[in-house]
Each structure stands twice: as structure tokens, then as C-alpha cells.
Amino acid sequence: MPKDQVAERMKRKDYEKELEKLQVELCHLQDYVKENKLRVIVLFEGRDAAGKGGTIKAITEKVSPRVFRVVALPAPSDREKTQLFFQRYMKQFPAGGEIVIFDRSWYNRAGVEYVMGFCSPAEHDRFLALCPQMEKYAIDGGIILIKIWLEVGMDEQERRFNARIDDPVRQWKLSPMDLESFKRWYDYSRARDLMLKKTSTKYAPWYIIRSDDKRRARLNCFAHLLRAIPYKQIRKDKVRLPKRSDKGRYNDQASLRGMNFVAERY
């Protein structure tokens, strides 16, 4: 969407109303995935400050970490550098009843590694050639793969970077690599376009979500996930609390006297 056509930013009240409804549906999806032993991978890519972390946080806020598992791998160790490139990522693939969310993924090779020169041109070419084959292998094996690119505009990225600089609780999000990526905007644009061209396939397409408005982006992401993973609500018996047994009753608060309690400062 051109800059002069950007929609008005969504109001918090409207966002929270829609978010609550979508989070309920996500819990229904969770139950279905767990009961039917589905294996799902959702991977998020995008420029620095595109909103990946906040979107993932919103997705996982109301669901079980035993079903929704977030993977954010650090830089490869010396040992991992000697392995097959995809090896450390495949270790994280889901078992039945799991949804694995990659906060950045094997597509690091098509982005930061390529732009910053952390891999050779030959390694980059090999990745682009083999990546669709690896993904087809996973999909043919029964994995549902959803690839999302969050697209943030140049002006909005700059605004978010400046906000991080001025906010002491968000300064940790601003690394030297982030500053370098800010400088190399057009290099990353070319790398993005080549990645999308080579790896968006019929069986594993890329879906792009504009993220200049974080709230709209998160809701659109929720809605896309709910469309992309077929599910229906699992009927459950209503839960009722059982009556507490009085057997072995004793004063369980008196037994805590003399223990170390945290000082109540608030």
C-alpha cells in the first residue's frame, strides 16, 4: 500500500476486541491440532523491527507452550557450522500435536547471511536451489508449513528504531547488526525479492503481511493462520471442580510460620 494510502492506525479498543475473539479461535485450533496429532510449522521472516516478536507474543499469549513451541535459534556453534545447513533446524521440527513457530528460520541464509557476507555466493545459490526441495520433503511427510513475511516500510522502520534508542527497556532489541541492516535497506530489498522468487512455491507459498500498523498486522496474521490450518471446535464435557476431601485435614498455614517470605513491598 503506498504511503499516502496507509489506513488510519487501529485503535487499541477495537484491536483488543478483535484479538480476544481470534485468541478464542486459536484455542479451538490448539485443541484440534493436539487431538489429531497434526504437525505444523509457522515461520516468520521480515526486516528488523517488522514486528515478528510482538506478533509471536500475541499468538502464544493464551495458548499452551506444550502445543505452541517458539524456536529462536542463536548463531550456529562451531560444531553446527560443520553440519548440513538444514540440520539444526530440522532438530526443532514438530512431533504430533505440536505447532512450532520459528522466529527467523533457515531463511537467515537468504537474508542476513547473504547480505552481510556470512555465507559465500555459492552457498547462497545452493540454499535457494535446495530449500524448495527440503520443504517439499517436509510437506510430503505430513507437515503443514506456513511462511509469513512481515513487510515494514522504510519510514516506519526508522521510527521504531528511534523508539528503541529512546526506551531503556527496548534498547536490548537494537544490536549492531540491526544498525547495519538499517543502513543496507536496498541490499535487503534485493535479497528479499530473490528469496520470494526462488522459494515461493505452489506447495509452500510465501504470504506477505504489511506491518506498518502492528495491530492490524497481528490480527491479519491470526486470521491467516486460522484459514491455513483446517480445524473445527472439539466438543468437551464441562469441567466441574470436585469437592475437596477433608481426609487428613490440618492447619496448612500454621506450618509455614517461621519460613522465609518475600518482603511485601507493594
Automatic annotation (TrEMBL):
EC number per UniProt: 2.7.4.-
Domain Polyphosphate kinase-2-related: 10-235
One GO molecular-function entry: polyphosphate kinase activity
Listed Pfam families: PPK2
Gene3D superfamilies: P-loop containing nucleotide triphosphate hydrolases
Gene Ontology biological-process annotations: ATP biosynthetic process
Uppermost EC category: transferase
TM region(s), chain numbering: none
Superkingdom, natural source: Bacteria
Reactions it catalyzes: [phosphate](n) + ATP = [phosphate](n+1) + ADP
Keyword line: ATP synthesis, Kinase, Transferase
Function: Uses inorganic polyphosphate (polyP) as a donor to convert GDP to GTP or ADP to ATP.
Record family assignment: Belongs to the polyphosphate kinase 2 (PPK2) family. Class I subfamily.
Quaternary context: Homotetramer.
Protein name per Swiss-Prot or TrEMBL: ADP/GDP-polyphosphate phosphotransferase
Organism per entry: Bradyrhizobium cytisi
